[in-house]
Design brief:
Blueprint lengths: L24 H13 L17 H14 L3 E5 L2 H11 L7 E4 L5 H9 L3 E4 L11 H7 L4 E7 L9 H9 L2 E5 L7 E2 L2 E2 L6 E5 L12 E5 L2 H11 L2 H8 L16 H32 L5 E2 L7 E2 L5 E5 L1 H4 L3 H11 L13 E3 L9 H4 L28 H10 E4 L8 H16 L13
Parallel strand pairs: 2-3, 2-4, 4-5, 5-8
Antiparallel strand pairs: 1-9, 6-7, 6-11, 8-9, 10-12, 12-14, 13-14
The chain binds pyridoxal-5'-phosphate (PLP).
């Protein structure tokens, strides 16, 4: 075996990985269909037949609802705006608490703040990386009204959260941005709670540039979400919704071109998922033989969507830090065609636990006096101090390795290169012991 690339040896692979490109002739034809019609949007912010959007929007919503076996699908211009529709639909009081995970994209935890509600962080389960139901129970107070759970990295949230929510009279909102097509007990992620949201941004399994879809079986939540999408205050009387609180309207509307692209992308989802799953499962099986690595587990009733392949690393077993190990693996592998500027698509950690962001550390969101955090009436609550979610901190700072080198554009022969890079570094790890991350 040649010298480690980090010491000038020949890397396992130097030519780029193929790109992840889901767009093809079908999407071009769909865009042309809309262009020929000449109607790029048909929404109107008034109670009118066009309140519901144009032909492509309605078709996308119907097809999405049928695919995910849900009563309502509501197309929006991002998952971020969809999460705001979902939280707004719940009609919460300012100061109500929403339990959220610390490991997610910031858009998840900001959605409650938009409606003056307070995010309360609860730690994750180190096996699934999603909210740990036991910790959630500890975080419930008399002000808790909802749990906003995330199917992180494509792993579905725990069904226990449904039971807890039902038992305590809370809403369960699901951020399924990273998990379209994942299932738990035969039910799709996104449909495990009262209301769920998907992302169609260009990093996701399927996309239309930017976009999102809200799903629910609940008629009241659906009409409220549609109102928030489209200038609620002007449409609420026509819609006959009596409880108008929270119904301030935005313009979260998706265009006809994006909807037409999303319709084609949805058709491709099963095939794209099965390729990702095959790659990720192959790699998990191989990497299990490295004692310091724990590849992601899937419970018996789980079908993972593998947004990324998240591996846990045990520094004590390896006797070198995760960051040095990852730096060495990166040097053995190439970039991905089309995303050269992102470097090699493997890294240590995900996002810093979100309570460490300035908005929570300074408890400063609207104005300078701490609103809405002050609504709790207690200066020490919620607890956003470092150490409040130790599992998430340990995962991010020490244990997690995530990579995208199992996407649907790759084959098992590409997987072999990824495996070989890990094994090469593992077998030569003694040589890395003299390095610290500052040396690299
Ligand atoms: C878990 C999660 N929630 C929300 C979002 C926001 O999605 P969007 O970019 O569609 O607004 C993302 C995007 O990466 C995400 O990963």
């Amino acid at each position: 075996m040649s010298k480690l690339a980090i010491f000038g040896g020949k890397p396992v692979r130097s030519y780029p990985f193929p790109p992840y490109r889901t767009l093809g002739e079908e999407e071009i034809e769909a865009v042309n269909r809309v262009m020929e019609k000449g109607q790029l949007s048909r929404f109107i912010g008034a109670w009118h037949p066009d309140f519901w959007g144009g032909e492509e929007i309605r078709a996308l919503e119907e097809e999405w609802a049928a695919f995910f076996n849900v009563k309502h699908a509501i197309a929006v211009n991002s998952c971020t705006s969809g999460l705001q529709c979902a939280i707004g639909a719940l009609d919460l009081e300012p100061g109500d608490e929403v339990i959220v995970p610390p490991l997610t994209m910031s858009a998840t935890v900001v959605a409650p703040l938009v409606f003056d509600c307070i995010p309360v962080f609860s730690d994750c389960d180190p096996a699934t990386f999603c909210l740990d139901p036991e910790r959630v129970q500890d975080a419930i107070t008399h002000r808790t009204r909802a749990i906003l759970a995330v199917d992180l990295f494509g792993h579905p949230i725990s069904e226990r959260l449904r039971e807890i929510a039902k038992d305590k009279g809370l809403y369960l909102v699901e951020d399924a941005a990273q998990a379209p097509g994942a299932t738990k007990g035969g039910r799709y992620s996104g449909t495990l709670g009262d209301i769920g949201v998907f992302s169609l941004n260009y990093h996701k399994h399927i996309h239309c540039g930017e976009g999102g879809i809200v799903v629910t079986d609940d008629d009241d939540l659906a009409i409220r979400a549609r109102l928030i999408r489209n200038h609620a205050e002007s449409c609420v009387e026509g819609a006959g919704v009596e409880s108008i609180s929270g119904l301030i309207g935005f313009n979260f509307r998706l265009t006809e071109i994006q909807a037409a692209i999303a319709r084609e992308q949805l058709k491709k989802l099963p095939e794209l998922l099965s390729k990702r799953r095959a790659n990720a499962r192959w790699l998990s099986k191989e990497l299990k033989d490295i004692p310091a690595l724990s590849p992601p587990e899937e419970g018996e009733d789980v079908d993972h969507a593998y947004y990324v392949h998240a591996i846990r690393y045990d520094e004590k077993v390896a006797e070198i830090s995760r960051d040095v190990f990852v730096a060495a693996v990166r040097r053995e592998l190439p970039v991905m065609a089309g995303r050269e500027e992102d470097g090699v698509l493997i890294r240590g950690g995900y996002v810093r636990p979100l309570y460490l962001l300035p908005i929570f550390q300074q408890k400063r969101c609207y104005g300078r006096k701490g609103y809405p955090f002050t609504l709790s009436g207690r200066s020490e609550w919620p607890n956003y101090t470092e150490g409040c979610c130790p599992v998430s901190e340990r995962l991010h700072f020490k244990e997690l390795i995530i990579h995208e080198l199992m996407h649907a554009g790759l084959s098992i022969s590409d997987m072999k290169d990824v495996r070989d890079a890990f094994f090469k570094v593992w077998e030569k790890r003694d040589e890395l012991k003299r390095l610290s991350i500052q040396d690299i």
